[in-house]
Amino acid sequence: MEQAGLLSPDVILMDLVMPGLDGIGAIQQVRALDRKPSVIVLTSFADDEKVFAALQAGASGYLLKDVQPKELSEAIRLVSRGESLLRPSVAAKVVRELQRREAPGAAQGDLTGRELQVLKELAPGRSNKEIGQALGITGKTVKTHVGNILQKLHLADRTQAALYAVREHLAD
Fold it and tell me: At the topology level of CATH, where does 2-102 sit?
């Protein structure tokens, strides 16, 4: 982060898994710099939650590590010109997500009654154990419900889930 601020690069190529700050947090910090460099995520993770979290954080590109050198150099050139780049398999996920969001009953309606209860209990920052005690279920079951909530709502972590619950007036 220090080097990004000092060097003012046009494009930053980064992984999502790094020591200390995770890639999503790093993307957010990079995009908050005065001179906002474009970010291309280069990772081995193609799962939906990582893709959407990276794009929501401000990534301009998302490539998997099996990308050919020629494709990578072209991606850097495209992104440096202000364009976005997604590998076709990643682009397909984005299209499906946009279609899902447009479909009736998306998002909150996709959650089960129990998942909504867990989400409401999660919003104030309660632990899995505390939520389990309040709902009469085990902490392990709560963990499963939290994972399902994050997946269904395409959120990266519990904090985003808590913010979602407040924004949707499910919790104070």
Answer: Rossmann fold (3.40.50)
